[in-house]
UniProtKB/TrEMBL annotation:
Transmembrane domains' residue ranges: 20-38
Residue stretches making up the Band domain: 32-194
KW Membrane (keyword) present: yes
Primary localization class, coarse: membrane
UniProt-annotated location(s): Membrane
SUPFAM superfamilies per UniProt: Band 7/SPFH domain
Membrane topology note: Single-pass membrane protein
Protein's name in the database: Prohibitin family protein
Organism: Shewanella atlantica
Length: 298
């Protein structure tokens, strides 16, 4: 019976497995003797579960079956929260906020030792403090302020969260208020109020335009009146200058006649049409005599 077992195929198969078992174990050991850390991560090397060190991106080696590697992402991560709060006037509001945070690369090992990884850090440290900072800041603002001036609310949350996260191996930045959900009644009242503001602004714009048009008409009339006045002044000045010139000419002519009587004779000569007089003054009963040629009269 022993001879039959030794000659059976199963026996030879088991011997073959035992023969190649060291090679299989060696291959498994070699496969587990290295690890690769991808970009944006660090590898935390654990020996029997205890964190011993961290490795940067690249190819690294470890002790097979004894050491394991935990990857810690050191790129910027984003956490979002949706929470209920209230405004300064005690109006219920739902806020959707987000925050970006990054693990300090050099402190990744310390973060793993203290908190056990990124997920545990988020759940135990970051998220509760982020919610607390948001809920403490929102009630400092009225609903209208939250809508019109989100930046101030964001700054308040950032300041409070920075105080809460001081001393932790992470960098927190770029907080955003993604959405503000207010009661529908308040939204309707805001729309009505905005409509009234728009109508008032339109009416004010209309009145301003009418005022400008009236002012333009007054300026135009004033300009025309000033133009007419300038023309009248110019005409009056022209007449005055013309009268002065004529008076000066008459005065000059009078002085010339006075100083030289021959100018009168010259003027008469210039005015004579070249014809002799046809009548002359007489004496007695015929004071006027006709001295025209009889032939001409005939």
């Amino acid at each position: 019976m022993l001879e039959q077992k030794l000659k059976s195929p199963k026996f030879f198969k088991s011997i073959s497995i035992v023969k190649f078992l060291p090679l299989i174990l060696l291959a498994i050991a070699l496969f587990n003797s290295y690890f690769i850390v991808i970009e944006g991560h660090v590898g935390v090397v654990k020996r029997f579960g205890e964190a011993k060190g961290q490795e940067n991106p690249g190819l690294h080696f470890k002790i097979p079956f004894i050491e394991t590697v935990e990857m810690i992402e050191v790129r910027t991560r984003k956490n979002a929260e949706k929470m209920a709060s209230s405004t300064k006037e005690q109006m219920p509001v739902t806020i959707e906020v987000s925050v970006n945070w990054t693990v300090n690369k050099e402190a990744a090992l310390d973060l793993f030792k203290r908190y056990g990884g990124l997920t545990q850090f988020e759940q135990r440290i970051l998220d509760p403090r982020f919610r607390s900072a948001t809920k403490d800041t929102i009630p400092q603002f009225e609903a209208e302020q939250l809508i019109q001036d989100r930046a101030s609310a964001i700054q308040g949350i950032e300041h409070r969260l920075a105080e809460e996260m001081e001393g932790f191996p992470v960098v927190v930045d770029n907080i955003q208020i993604e959405n503000i959900i207010l009661p529908q009644k308040y939204i309707n009242s805001i729309e009505i109020k905005q409509t009234e503001k728009n109508l008032a602004a339109a009416e004010e714009h209309k009145l301003e335009r009418q005022r400008l048009e009236a002012l333009r008409a007054v300026n135009t009339a004033d300009a025309k009146a000033k133009g007419i006045l300038k023309i009248a002044e110019a005409e009056a000045q022209s007449i005055l200058l013309k009268g002065k010139a004529e008076a000066q000419a008459i005065d000059a002519k009078a002085k010339a006649l006075k100083n030289n009587p021959l100018i009168v004779k010259l003027t008469e000569a210039q005015a004579w049409d070249g014809k002799l007089p046809t009548t002359m003054m007489g004496e007695g009963v015929m004071p006027i005599m006709d001295i025209r040629d009889k032939s001409e009269s005939n």
